Amino acid sequence: MADPTAQATTTLDALPIGIDGLVVLIVYLLGIVGIGFWGRAKRKEESLSDHYLAGRELGFFVLLLTLFATQYSGNTLFGFTAKSYRMGYAWIMSVHAMTAVVVGYLLFAPALHRQSRDRNYITPADYLHDRFNSRAIRLVCALIMIFATANYVYAQLKVMGIAVTGLTGGRIDPIYGVVGLAVVMILYETLGGMRSVAWTDAIQGLLLLLGFTLLVILVMRQHGTLAEAAVHIREHSPEKIAVPNATRCAHWFSMVLLIGLGASVYPHAIQRIYAAKNPRILRKSLKVMAFFPFVTTLIVLVVGLIALRAHPDLDHQSTERLLAIICGDLAGSGSLGYWTVIVILAAIMAALMSTADSALLSLSSMATKDLYGTFLNPTADEQKLTRIGKSVSWVVLALLVWLSSYEDLTLVQLLEVKFEVLLQVVPAFYLGVHLPRLKGGPVLLGMLVGLGLAITLLVIGIKTIDGVHAGVVALAANTITVLVGHALGSRQTVAAPG
Q: Contact 478/450 with Cβ under 8 angstroms?
């Protein structure tokens, strides 16, 4: 067995990726720019619906894969593999959490889709404004979602820079890698809007599926099966195969709620709900999506567990590079392993770009329609708003690229509160579509109570309470506030005629 200390020094820049592999990756990037021009040629009108929702004509294949590529970011491959190695079998919670996202969609997406077509919604806040007739709710929701989305794009850009530097053996500085990929991304997004983004996501989604499949097959061929890894774990790290205690179970359930509910209200996910061609296609896509955690997240879990046997005793910092270590093993195992690593690296780039482009497009739509079009220039027509939206994409991306150049500016704390903050819009959507008499007052109060509590707990350093995330605790307070306010309002309405 290889020396784990030596293997721990392996990073992306140590991978034996030659000129041929880099050429393949460059051709791939040029290809998706070509899709941008194709999307522009397919454009039917200069409107918000056409630019941000592809004319509401996404069919089953493209909708399924764009939802998939959006849900699974580069963090799924990098972060989940490392987490599996550190936690052991308890990280099976990640499979449940990603499945919960689909369950979350099914709880509100079909009803929201029907209303979006009838009422011509573009942004998530369009629904809330229309449903509750409240500019305040629209503003708070838009600010929460813009905050979460900006952090999401920023995180993908940081990893893009690191990845490019690694793949070129350190010859390209991270900021140049970020700029290069950002230019590719903004070109096809500006040219074709959601239509280009969705089709590139479809290609990237197929790459992700192929990358996940090849990864687990070759890892098991080189390092042994999960059964062999389980024997090793039981003998050398029994705590990673033990039954979790009550606190761990509470944390498990909290994680499922945090990711399941939070990811289901990502603004770019909601806009894909709007963009579905019809309700049947949306439901069919979501039903198939329910199986994807078993061919993605579960595979990453298995790879992390097998790595416990192949590379035991890695420290915490080294586990963050676990995927690179595994790829180093595969790349040195022969031509099949080498080209498999090329596919995996393309899948990683695909995951990063598919997440970033979707989030950036959504951020642009919210800044344009919810802020500029509602509060600054309510009389602007569709063509002007669409032009403004494209300019906003360039400006926002340039700002985030500039911020990513500062190594000391990690925004780690902001990234940690992303889901905790985003969770506070969940009651507005979930209860809004199912409680027709729910008024805006309780919804706004609940949102502010949840937001205030989540931020307060995190600022004073309380990330969990008995294993439950601060954002989930705040969501409970938020939901209770909404339901109590709704009950009191309904009682007063009933009592008024008498």
A: yes
Q: Give the tokens for residue 352.
A: 């990063």
Determine how many CB atoms are found less than 10 A away from the CB of residue 249. Answer: 14
Nearest by Cα to 272 from 423, 102, 428, 56: 56
Listed in sequence order, the residues at least 6 apart from 219 whose beta carbon sits closer than 8 Å to its beta carbon are 302, 303, 306, 307, 326, 330
Question: Which residue segments constitute the domains of the chain, with CATH numbers given?
Answer: 4-420 (1.20.1730.10)
Distance (Å, rounded) from C-alpha 393 to C-alpha 188? 12
From the list 100, 299, 93, the residue with the least C-alpha distance to 210 is 299
| DSSP letters spanning 447-492 | HHHHHHHHHHHHHTT--EETTEEHHHHHHHHHHHHHHHHHHHHHHH
Distance CA 62, CA 277 (A): 11
Q: β-strand 468-469 against 464-465: which pairing, if any?
A: antiparallel
Decide: residue 406, CB within 10 A, 0-12 exposed, 13-18 middle, 19+ buried. Answer: exposed
**What's the rounded mean pLDDT across residues 160-182?**
75
Q: How far apart are CA 477 and CA 59, in angstroms?
A: 39
Give dist(CA 244, CA 402) in Å, integer. Answer: 43
Cβ(275)–Cβ(53) below 8 Å: yes
DSSP state of 179: H
Cα distances (Å, whole numbers) of residue 419 to 202, 254, 265: 25, 12, 10
Instruction: Check residues 354 and 127 and name the one with the higher pLDDT.
Output: 127
Residue 63 has pLDDT above 80, yes or no: yes
What percentage of the chain exceeds 90 in pLDDT?
A: 44
How many CB atoms are closer than 10 A to CB 81?
Answer: 29
Per the CB < 8 A criterion, the answer to whether 117 and 56 are in contact is: yes
Q: Determine contact, residues 430/406, Cβ cutoff 8 Å.
A: no
User: Which H or E run contains 235?
Assistant: helix 226-236
pLDDT digits (tens, 9 = 90+) for 427-485: 999 999 999 999 999 999 999 999 999 999 988 989 899 989 999 999 999 999 999 99
Residues 6 or more apart whose Cβ sits within 8 Å of residue 498? none
CA distance 411 to 403: 10
304-327 pLDDT tens trace: 999 999 888 888 777 877 877 888
Cα angle 325-345-289, degrees, rounded to a multiple of 5: 105
